[in-house]
Amino acid sequence: MLLRLHLQTSLLIVILNCILCSSTEANLTLNGQWMISNSNKSINVEGHVPGTVTTSLVNASIIGNPYYRFNDVAYRWIAYDNWTYSRTFEVSDAIMQKDTVQLVCDGLDTVSDITINGKFVGTSENMFVRYVFNVKPMMTVGENKIVVSFRSAITYAKRKADEYMLNVPPLCPAGPQHGECHPNFIRKEQCSFSWDWGPAFIPQGIWKDIGIEAFNSPVIRDVTVVTHKGNSSIPWNVTVTAFLQASSTSSQSGHFVVRFPTLNITSKVKVHLNSALEYAVNATLSIPREAGVETWWPNGLGNQTLYMVEVTFAADNMAASRPPKVVRIGFRTVELIEDPLDNQQGQGLSFYFKINGVPVFMKGSNWIPADSFKEKVTPSVVRNLLQSAVDAHMNCLRVWGGGIYEEEFFYDIADELGIMLWHDLMFACAMYPTDAAFLASIETEVTQQVRHLQKHPSILLWAGNNENEVALAQNWYFTNSEYERFKADYLRLYVETIRPRVLAEDSSRPFLVSSPSNGKQSEAEGWLAKNPQDPNYGDVHYYNYVDDSWDWRIFPPARFASEYGYQSWPSFESLANVSIPEDWSYFSPFMQHRQHHIVGNLKMLFQIVRHFDLPESLVTCPQPKQTFLDTLYMTQVNQAMSIKTETEFYRRGRGTDANTMGALYWQLNDIWQGASWSSIEYGGKWKMLHYYAVRFFDPVIVSPFEELIDGKTSYLRVFAISDLQRPLVASLSVQLRRWDSFDVVRELNIDVNMVSIYSVFVLFLFIVYCLLLLFLCPLQRKPVRAVSIIGAKVTGVTQSESSSNVFHIQLSADSVAPFVWLEATACSGRFSDNGFMMTSRAREVQFIAWEAMTAERLQHALSVRSLNDVYASTERHL
Ligand SMILES: *[C@@H]1O[C@H](CO)[C@@H](O)[C@H](O)[C@H]1NC(C)=O
Ligand SMILES: *[C@@H]1O[C@H](CO)[C@@H](O)[C@H](O)[C@H]1NC(C)=O
Ligand SMILES: *[C@@H]1O[C@H](CO)[C@@H](O)[C@H](O)[C@H]1NC(C)=O
Ligand SMILES: *[C@@H]1O[C@H](CO)[C@@H](O)[C@H](O)[C@H]1NC(C)=O
Ligand SMILES: *[C@@H]1O[C@H](CO)[C@@H](O)[C@H](O)[C@H]1NC(C)=O
Ligand SMILES: *[C@@H]1O[C@H](CO)[C@@H](O)[C@H](O)[C@H]1NC(C)=O
Ligand SMILES: *[C@@H]1O[C@H](CO)[C@@H](O)[C@H](O)[C@H]1NC(C)=O
Ligand SMILES: *[C@@H]1O[C@H](CO)[C@@H](O)[C@H](O)[C@H]1NC(C)=O
Ligand SMILES: *[C@@H]1O[C@H](CO)[C@@H](O)[C@H](O)[C@H]1NC(C)=O
Ligand SMILES: *[C@@H]1O[C@H](CO)[C@@H](O)[C@H](O)[C@H]1NC(C)=O
């Protein structure tokens, strides 16, 4: 009864609102169909907005798949041309009668002139800025024509760099990236000019919503919400601020109303607006204990409870109020703790986050743009990737500074899944110009973005840039000869321009000037530390392709590892989609072209040969297809083992003097099908590393490693690590096996009592003989010759009763099979486990399908391999 009544009331409100809103404002979307033409008018196609020129050309069959083979270079002419978007639209009398009529462009990519009916409206130069233009004088009732003329971002950036007189390095990207120069001179996605994992497409287009908005009384553009922890009777105190845009400069008075509909809490504040065009009005609401508010927690630590907040501004002279602006928030606090450490080393500061007062070890990875063409990054693409992060027990992702401020739905999904976002501002791996116009544009960008995204509980912190402090400190771009100029520019941009803007817009989370940085220590050294990579302070980025990546001794005892990684190739299935048989050799021109990291393909082999013999015929071209497949597979084995070794080292670091409290490996996702550091392929398929992440990020893990004591005796040291918020009593079992049998040679059982939530249990075991140990030394000594040549095989596939998207796969093996790897070609989904060590005769794994699937189709698509198979032909030969 109550429910029915409620439904009827909301229906009434909806109807009422529609009647009312038509009288106070009228909006008109300009999304949808536009005409797109190039500068000499040889190409005229229909295109969809939001979208890019390139995708429209694909749709019109002017070009093929941009990711196919060498098309990133073959289609570069598109980025050198200038493209014009145009369309007509009908304007009603109701719109023209409003005081204010505005063109609102949420995102233009990037440099454009805009006209309506041939009259100049304005220009755009910053992809990350929302442009709002008053257009009433240019419009008429009836048909209107809007033209957005884009200019090549490449030629624009070059002209800006030429005009600047001084060099601002790096001038051009490294050769293997096949990129374009001077991305730092344009406020556009920096990696769209190429990166060491991505192509250069430098798109043009209207990439976000565009429309006409007409109104008589102030409209709310943005809402920020700060939640403060209170006391036991008033557990939360919330400050809600609305940013209003007025329609005229005449003063107005009215009411600002904030309502939590599900908590039945409302605040109404009388406000008087003077003769400005933009205002901020706020209200602070106390949330009493009786309201029963649930705290928002990161994934793994509790629920992600979210609350709606309705915000309205009603001018007194308005007949009735318009529908409220609704935002969704979470009640939580973030603190960055940088305290002097009282440990044996006696140096440095801690660096960790407390969420709702609880220290949280940040487990996760780094996020890069999920596609070169943003219209392809739909909510379902993002949800699938972020769910994959959650499936691997991640609670944190770093939104990296060479990409974009993502679409609102990205943050909504992160809020729902409990993924904390270390959010860089979009500056990466470069020095930047600091002329007044450029700084003014950045000021607008930072103000808008931080203000707009502030309300999301998932955002952990803002960081000014990616690697620009360390680039300057370590002379990456040969800046030392003019160090003082670059230092002054650095301070002007990040410390004097950006920092005050972020602090003014958002008091609810920390701000760091750079990543990596030494945090407070960088500040103490004038914001430019001598060594921003000092493991005793702040966060660290660590890459090492020279030393053995399966040896934990090479890794820095960092407080917080915010980047570290090793490359691998995606699956054959993904590569085959964008290549032809002549490309399928490890050293083919295609494989060189897709490798954007300098000598990256050799670096991978260099790591592999430390532990395995390389597949036969590797250096021949063309190569036997099996050798190509084996090599792709081995790059994934090496990447998975390397990141497992490094991540477990950081997790063990929580219980050592390192006080490590964060491990975010580089990188979660891919922008195309190429060699990269990612754990998930373009399209969502998990690499072996992602399956390993499920295990090494588990809240409770056992982490064994080899340690040489006194320089000669080798010990097996086992850490048990728990991130649970409660004591854990368990028993630990260590089993020793030979490679050629399933039998346990030796077994040890120990009771473990982990009292402290984060303490580690340390256990010393003398190693009887190295060869007997699984996971450790044997693999380092190329054991495969001792392994049976028969790997694992599939013996059956059945559909679950209980859940139609889950399939049971039976596996069997005749002896220990390392790195058993299942693939289901052309089937979207993931396995319950993969890349594992098979230490029993039979084992079951599940396939969780992300699309409609049958057992028959899956069985047909399934293939399984293990390390044994790589050497099968060799062994037979021997
Ligand atoms: C029209 O646009 C204004 C400004 O963005 C917004 O506040 C309002 O909710 C919109 N009205 C409708 C009916 O969509
Ligand atoms: C027009 O532009 C296209 C694309 O840049 C180019 O291929 C073509 O040659 C041009 N045509 C003329 C007549 O200049
Ligand atoms: C693709 O082109 C057709 C017309 O050829 C058009 O109707 C459709 O909207 C276009 N789709 C996109 C996404 O641009
Ligand atoms: C694009 O516009 C720029 C600036 O107006 C001009 O210099 C350039 O020649 C144009 N490119 C083409 C291909 O027309
Ligand atoms: C709530 O906020 C107000 C204004 O900032 C402050 O004076 C008050 O002490 C706060 N109350 C609690 C419980 O934090
Ligand atoms: C809690 O804070 C509120 C608002 O600041 C204050 O009025 C109240 O006395 C405090 N109650 C307790 C138990 O401290
Ligand atoms: C909501 O709050 C008002 C005023 O505090 C109270 O009169 C009303 O009973 C509350 N409604 C519900 C459903 O709790
Ligand atoms: C709220 O608005 C008042 C009046 O404009 C201002 O003095 C105050 O600083 C604002 N408070 C917050 C937390 O923004
Ligand atoms: C989390 O949500 C579940 C289901 O709504 C609820 O039963 C549980 O009490 C919540 N836990 C916490 C800690 O709030
Ligand atoms: C291959 O390309 C097709 C068409 O673009 C796409 O639907 C499919 O998902 C791709 N497969 C893989 C494994 O990338």
TrEMBL record:
Residues 34-208 form the Beta-mannosidase-like galactose-binding domain. Residues 797-869 form the Beta-mannosidase Ig-fold domain. Pfam families: Glyco_hydro_2_N2, Ig_mannosidase. It is an enzyme of class 3 (hydrolase). Residues 1-26 form the signal peptide. It catalyses: Hydrolysis of terminal, non-reducing beta-D-mannose residues in beta-D-mannosides. Its EC number is 3.2.1.25. The keyword Transmembrane helix applies. The chain crosses the membrane at residues 755-776. Keywords: Glycoprotein, Glycosidase, Hydrolase, Membrane, Signal, Transmembrane, Transmembrane helix. InterPro entries: Beta-gal/glucu_dom_sf, Beta-mannosidase-like_N2, Beta-mannosidase_GH2, Beta-mannosidase_Ig, Galactose-bd-like_sf, GH, Ig-like_fold. The keyword Transmembrane helix applies. Belongs to the glycosyl hydrolase 2 family. This is beta-mannosidase. The lineage of its organism: Eukaryota, Metazoa, Ecdysozoa, Scalidophora, Priapulida.
